[in-house]
Amino acid sequence: MGSTSDWETMRHAAEILETLDVAHETRVVSAHRTPQRLYDYASGAVERGLVAIIAGAGGAAHLPGMAASMTRLPVLGVPVESKALKGMDSLLSIVQMPAGIPVGTLAIGRAGAVNAGLLAAAIAATADPALGERLQAWRDAQTEGVATEPE
Ligand code: RP5
Fold first, then answer.
1. Residue 151: predicted pLDDT
2. Between 42 and which of 24, 67, 80, 91 could a Cys-Cys bridge form, CB atoms 3.0 to 4.6 Å apart?
3. 6 is in an annotated binding site
4. Between the CA of residue 45 and those of 38, 106, 141, what are the distances in Å?
5. Ligand 1 centre from 86 Cα, in Å?
C-alpha cells in the first residue's frame, strides 16, 4: 500500500488471505515518497517467488501501474477512498492503464480489498489444489450464509 493510512482499507485483503491460509506479506511502498523502495520491491518480486501483488493506493494512485511496469506478476489494484474525491481519482488513475501493462482493477475501498484478496487466492489456487478447496469452501459458506428473507 502507498501509505500507512491505506491500512484501514487494505487490512481487509490481508484478513481474507489469513482466513484462507495464504502466505502473504504487507508492505508500505509509495510510488511518490519511496520510489527506490518501489523499484526494489517490484523488480525483485519474481525472484523472491511471489505469485501476485495487491497494490492499494489513493488519490493520484500510481502505485499499481508503476509496480506492474516492473514485474510480469499479476498486479491487482485497489483504489483507496480519498477524502477529496471519494476514490474516483484513485479508481481512474488505476484503471486507465495503457495497452501493454495490465493492472486488474478492483472496486473502491473495502469491497475492492476483499476481492483483491479473493482474486489473489484464486490465482494462487491454479497451482495449489488444497487452496482451491479452501477457497471453494469459503464460497460455499458465504452462499449458505445468505438469508432467504430479511429479519
Ligand atoms: C497515496 O496518498 C496513498 O496511497 C494514500 O492513499 C494517499 C494519502 O497518503 P497519506 O498522506 O495519508 O500518507 O500515496
1. 84
2. 67
3. yes
4. 11, 21, 33
5. 13
| Pocket residues: Cβ below 6 A from ligand 1 | 2-3, 5-6, 30, 32, 57-59, 80
- Kind of pairing, strands 53-58 and 104-105? unpaired
pTM, to two decimals: 0.97
Domains of the chain: 4-144 (3.40.50.1970)
Question: Could you give the CA distance from residue 87 to residue 41 in angstroms, rounded to a whole number?
Answer: 25
* Residue in the block written with cell 487490512: 11
| Per-residue pLDDT at 85 exceeds 90 | yes
CA of 5 to the centre of ligand 1 (A): 6
Q: Whose CA is nearest to atom 9 of ligand 1?
A: 3
